[in-house]
Design a protein that fits this description.
By secondary structure, the chain is of the alpha/beta class. Helix content is 41%, strand content 20%.
Length: 243
């Protein structure tokens, strides 16, 4: 509840507060304070889509248990919301939305890059970045939870970069003769992509006897850049395969 009080004290002009939901304790306190003092301010909860227990409970009109699943947002990994917190959400929370694991990864990466903050509970930022809340309103995103271990963070970064079109894998066939790989890399280099990793397989079952399969991990600018690379390779006669 004191978080809601601090938000209104420091940002009285706020029009919307977006809060992560696990069992519902955090948003219950925040929404109670905000709605009692400034009823016009919207309070929106955000859950990981794979374990969206409060979202499911709201739709069902009663406390509901959802199936277990892995999520990056470990701090809000709650399969059954509390009875009291469900009642508070029904009373004070305007809306609950869900975000995908890719959207969460992109939000964690954005906070890491821009704010230099590691936060597992990045679902409000994920909802804002993906346009699942009204981005025209003066908005506060409550960010909580720093329990991301290093191996997981590494995977999150890779997933976030891939989702944002800044890392991609492209696989294609090549004629198995001298100079073919160099020609391919010249085309890729000409698009402005940077080769991070490359795998050249001459005995792939998907290729003809006189051909080989090359898989490249590329650093790219965005999704449009990825599509430009694919279009250029197709234009040059390369057959793209599913990675």
């Amino acid at each position: 509840g004191t978080i809601g009080l601090e938000i209104l004290e420091q940002l009285p002009e706020v029009e919307q507060v977006v809060v992560p939901i696990g069992g519902g304790g955090l948003i219950s306190g925040i929404s109670t304070a905000i709605k009692e003092l400034k009823p016009s301010c919207k309070v929106i909860g955000v859950q990981a889509g794979v374990v969206a227990s409060m979202y499911a409970s709201r739709k069902a009109g009663k406390v509901t248990t959802v199936k277990d699943a892995a999520t990056l947002a470990d701090g809000i990994h709650v399969l059954t919301p509390g009875d009291l917190t469900f009642e508070m959400c029904q009373k004070y929370v305007d809306e609950i939305v869900t975000v995908s694991e890719d959207e969460i990864a992109a939000a964690i990466l954005a906070l890491l890059e821009v704010q230099k903050t590691v936060a597992a509970g990045a679902t409000p930022v994920a909802a804002f970045m993906s346009g699942k809340v009204d981005t025209s309103k003066k908005t506060v995103c409550v960010v909580s939870g720093g329990n991301v271990d290093v191996p997981t963070l590494s995977r999150v970064i890779t997933r976030g970069l891939t989702y944002g079109g800044r890392l991609t894998t492209i696989t294609t066939k090549l004629a198995d003769r001298a100079g073919s790989l160099a020609n391919l890399l010249n085309v890729v280099g000409g698009t402005g992509a940077n080769v991070v990793r490359i795998h050249h397989e001459r005995e792939d079952v998907n290729s003809e006897v006189n051909a080989c399969v090359v898989s490249m991990v590329l650093e790219t600018r965005n999704s449009e850049h990825v599509q430009q690379i694919k279009d250029k390779l197709t234009e040059k006669g390369y057959s793209l395969l599913e990675a």
